[in-house]
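Troubleshooting entry. The earlier prediction with pyridoxal-5'-phosphate gave an output that would not parse, so I re-checked the input for stray whitespace and re-submitted. Clean input:
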Amino acid sequence: MSSSSFAPPTVAENIMRLQAYVPGKPAEEVQRELGLTSIVKLASNENPLGPSPKAQEAIQAMLSRIHIYPDGSAHELRTALAESLSVDPNSLVFGNGSDDIIHLLGVTFLGPGDTVLQSDPSFVRYEAAAILNEVECIEVPCTSSWDCDLDAMLAKVDASTRLVFLANPNNPTGTAIKSDDLDAFVSQLPERVILVLDEAYYEYAKDFDWYPDSVKWVKQERNVVILRTFSKAYGLAGLRVGYGIMRPEMTQWLERTREPFNVNLLAQAAAVAALHDDEFLQRTITTNRQGLETIGAALRQMNLQYVPSYGNFLFINVGVDGKVVADSLLHKGVIVRYSPHFKGPTWIRVTVGTADENTRFLTALQEVLA
Ligand SMILES: Cc1ncc(COP(=O)(O)O)c(C=O)c1O
């Protein structure tokens, strides 16, 4: 009997509703498909300067040890981070990217009758965590200026609310929530609610004096989880290492649902080194700030609306179908992001690149819109 006579397995209704994540196209794929010689990828909010040089050195030094399992407790990374954040080492959970922690939070804390609350548009993986765990994800539209509508979100909190996701700065809009506003929000959340502050772009916003000191809520033993990552400012997206900061009473449950070796050996070594690479981090932040200014100035000249950004990307209203513009840019070798999840059909998101990459994007955008 041939194997084709077996019907494929069926899956639960919630799995059918899940959508596979569509990442920004890899540059090599675009190069291959379109026969282009040079590609600029500004679609996934990666670091245009490459990886931290200290992280690269640490990986080289570790290569002869990849036959052994990584340290499942990430002791060295845990100690280094706990010291730099001044938190209890037991308040940290490490993940295969911060994506992994989002997944673990869903698996660990969501149960029948719970709901998830998020601002819309925001990072798509929050909804995926809800669907995977068979709970409803309530999306609260942003304000007309694309800011999170915290009052409207509070109005949606009820006895079923379990996880509230807020990305700060938010992806794709680049907007950020200020300390006073977040203070007021946190103080009004019922105890049962776990507030997840996704600070994937923390390093780009941390120097603004109004940016919230969210770690204080963990120290106050609030049910607040902070997510951070080495994928963005530290330039280690390909290695996959992120972490959550939360009260130890919460980490103990995630330690049970986490895969024991979810952060690999090279990623752990690189993250420790990157954490100490102040020069690289500063250069990254400065390059980003200059890039935001250059792109912003050019967009103003082109009379294009954009949202002032506190991340390493810009949300831009191109005034015509965003998908068509993104496709046309792709054919010119510039990969940017368009998604129906943005909830703005004429909006695209572009990552800030090097000065040359930014020029290449702006020139291509001008040609496409001409
Ligand atoms: C807001 C936000 N959170 C989390 C992530 C996931 O980052 P990683 O899994 O690489 O740590 C991203 C990536 O784009 C993001 O934009």
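This one parsed fine. The radius of gyration is 21 Å.
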